[in-house]
Amino acid sequence: MVIFILLCISYTGLGQNSELKKKSSAIFTVRGSVYHKYSNDPINLVNIEVNGGAYAVTGSDGSFRIKVKIGDELVVRHKDFETVYYTIESDERVVIEVEPEQPKPSRKERLKQSIQTFNKLIDSANFYLKTDAEQSIHFIADALNESTSQDQNAEAYKTLGDLYMHWKQFDLAISNYRISLQNSKINETQLKLAKAYKNNKNYQESLEIYSNFNIEDLSNFQEIEYYENFGDTYIGTKDYKSAISIYEKGLKVAKDYKINSKTTDLNSKIAQAYNLDGNIIKAKGFFNSSLSLAEKENKKRALEEKITVAEFNNTAKNYTDEISLRKQAVEDIKEIESDSFISNESNITPQKQNYKIGNAYYLQKDYDSAIPYLEKSIQEADSRADLIIKNNALRRIADVYENKGDFDKAKQKFQEYIASVDELYTKKEQEIYQAARSQRNIIETQNRITSLENDRKFNQIRYDLTNRNQQIIIYSLSGGLLLLLIGSYFAYKYIKQQRLANNLLALKSLRSQMNPHFIFNALNSVNSFIATNDERTANRYLSDFSFLMRAVLENSEEDFIPLQKEIDLLELYVKLEHFRFQDKFDYAIEVEKTVDVEKFKIPPMLLQPYIENAVWHGLRYKTEKGLLKILIASRSKDEIIISIIDDGVGRVRSKTLKTDNQKKHNSKGLSNIKKRVAILNDMYKDKVDVSIEDYQNSEDTGTKVVVTLKKD
């Protein structure tokens, strides 16, 4: 009896603890205010942070709202008082009273302190820019909090653009360079914007900036860089003759002012342009010049140019000269590595050069000479954890032994290659996960910066309106009424801009959720196919998947892409799914001749989740082989219909066939598609319509998805 009572008390205590734990983990919004302890004046622009990651700033009345849970610690920071720490114990209003550390400094002193703080934060952001993107972007956000002028805003956003350029987020770099130029027109920033457009493949926008640029405002070095990047943009458009002409202008300036490093670079780029244009003789002449000039600079620059020329010889099938240059490069690398570290991402690693020497011997069919260099490449790649080169070298040496007729060694090396592929696949999967997590953190901070910019603009507008009100009220009541109307107009315009900004942020968030969802499903397909098929086919499948994934990620930032590009992606995606389920379905993609696919645009990855559902939830459960049809037909001049039809088991029966675990899982892709369509129709006036219905009245009813797309 006593034991029973103790067990009941213990159970009751556990239940109470469980309730307390549940309550403490719930997230809620708490209101608060920050005041001076003695004057009771509210304090504006106080930074409120939570140890869980939320962030807020007090308004002009000293108030704030922030999402917290019981036990969170608020960190209250401001330049005028010592940092305060406050622990959340309930959902009641938080009132924080602070005392200034010292008498209020003069306006001049505050401005000086603010400038010093801003410069330190920008210096810190630049220090971490190439090593820790998250840390750097936090410093930039703090610098924007300290900014007191448009010039400082321009500097902060330029630094943010530099960060995104380094980490190859070119669309975000473009946005921040443009904001920087809105605050202050600086030649350096305009040149960086043109380069960002080029890197993002917005070649026409880049060419427009270069063509309208006043080069008289540039320094000698900037002028050379202007011509160099201008030529690079023409290379992107495959207009090699224009690129050569621009490069030669830059080369003339570099020679006139004896800027030797750029003279070398431009000789090399002219050579590469001639090579791309098919003029091998001219290319060889300029490469000889660039090699000679690079030797006079330093060992590393000379090494880089040897490798560039070696690549040229490889494309020209001049393997003897290529091998000679690469052997020299291997010796030079040993000298350079004694003084500095070379990362695996660099083109001047010994494992890459030994692999390419072995590959050149292989292409010459000199297999005995190829083997030691490939073996050396494998050893070096293994010691440096360079799985890509190790993988390539193992595959190549297996081919060498096969061509020699030594099939036992070829088999051994091929098995090592398969193991290396699995190891590389695991590493890439981890890198994708880490990159996605880091991207989420960066997006959160970027959203914070965007919010700060919007708040700054709104506060500036409000401040200007207040001053105008005071002046106009003094002169006349009618002037006050006019100002009120102007204020209403600006408020309406601001709300409209905020709505658009919120829609854009929502679309970006949904796209960032869709891509990992799609990649996760595709990776499962790749993993399953590798486990059940022969290695060569698996390698081709992995190559197709890599191409598809790159195309999907490139389109992930666009609201709409050309219909033809979407069709190409779908053809590749359906091909990959058909590889896995060849015994389950056949497929056909038909485009009516009257449909002009070049004139229509469609949200990227709009159709893929419906196709995925048709395969995974309809056709996969059929006992007989099914058919998946994608039909694109014209409804009118400005409207087309895209039908996704399967003769699978149908929506009702598919639900009954799902496991309990599958029933708990909601389709993230379809949910995100519905939200995206709703937002896009709100922004673009009902451009897209989607309907889902049963396809036929039989045992396998099938499903028909109809997407209606308008031109404008």
Summarize the structure.
By secondary structure, the chain is α+β, with helices and mostly antiparallel strands. It has helices spanning 2-24, 107-128, 133-146, 150-166, 170-183, 187-199, 203-211, 220-236, 240-256, 260-276, 280-295, 299-315, 319-337, 350-363, 367-383, 387-404, 407-475, 477-532, 535-555, 563-580, 608-618, 651-657, 660-664, 668-684; strands at 28-36, 47-50, 55-57, 63-68, 73-78, 81-87, 94-98, 561-562, 585-591, 601-602, 626-636, 639-646, 688-694, 703-710.
Kindly describe this structure:
Keywords: Kinase, Membrane, TPR repeat, Transferase, Transmembrane, Transmembrane helix. This is Histidine kinase. With 712 residues, the chain is α+β, with helices and mostly antiparallel strands. Among the domains are: 28-103, Sandwich (Immunoglobulin-like), CATH 2.60.40.1120; 558-712, Heat Shock Protein 90 (2-Layer Sandwich). 66% of the residues lie in helices and 12% in strands. It is built from 24 helices and 14 strands. The protein has helices spanning 2-24, 107-128, 133-146, 150-166, 170-183, 187-199, 203-211, 220-236, 240-256, 260-276, 280-295, 299-315, 319-337, 350-363, 367-383, 387-404, 407-475, 477-532, 535-555, 563-580, 608-618, 651-657, 660-664, 668-684, and strands at 28-36, 47-50, 55-57, 63-68, 73-78, 81-87, 94-98, 561-562, 585-591, 601-602, 626-636, 639-646, 688-694, 703-710. The strands form four sheets. The chain has a five-stranded mixed beta sheet. It has a four-stranded antiparallel beta sheet with strand order 3-2-5-6, with no helix packed on it. A three-stranded mixed beta sheet has the order 4-1-7, with no helix packed on it. Strand 5 and strand 6 (81-87) form a beta hairpin. Helix 5 packs antiparallel against helix 6 and helix 8 (220-236) packs parallel to helix 10 (260-276). The longest helix has 69 residues, at 407-475. It is globular, with a radius of gyration of 32 Å. Mean pLDDT is 80; it is low at 1-14.
